[in-house]
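Example record for the data management plan.
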Amino acid sequence: MTKDSGMIITADMLESLRLHLRTPDLQVIARTEWGSQNSAHRELIHKERDSFLQNSPTKLHSSIAHTHGMGVLVLSKHAVGVDAEVSSRVQEKVIARVSSPEDVQAAPNAASLWVAKEATFKALRPYKQPSVLSDISIGAWVNIDSHTETFRLNHSISHQLPSEGVGVCIHFSPFTFGFFVIHS
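Corresponding structural encoding:
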């Protein structure tokens, strides 16, 4: 992918995501005009998603996220979730309200934990999705490099999943992105 029209996901970043999420078919599109500062952001991102879904020869799962300055669309044949946040806007006191002390302590930072929980929540939609974020426990964090971490959903069996699932957080200043895939 190139950096046109406000797109920030490079070919190298996409390959890294596909590798760490073990999802070669993963498609990720991120655009600045899809950010929540644009009053038409929902219409624009839904139009793009619908075009992919209608023109795909196979059934695709999709997930959408938006924050001030950025919107993200992900597609895969597997259940997938994405979240995007302006890193500095995630407050530790908020994440502490929806996370166990163990999850907070294990996480590399509040922004990573928040986007991991949100992305996982969205990926759980076809399965046993909890009604609140506090019912999602994230752990097994592994630092890959200065801007990438992997994570797992704790207690995945309680969500009746076909596989454990895998997640990745990417820090691309000023944003933090979370991705989670459940392989069928």
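Summary line stored alongside the record: The two ends are 26 Å apart (CA to CA).
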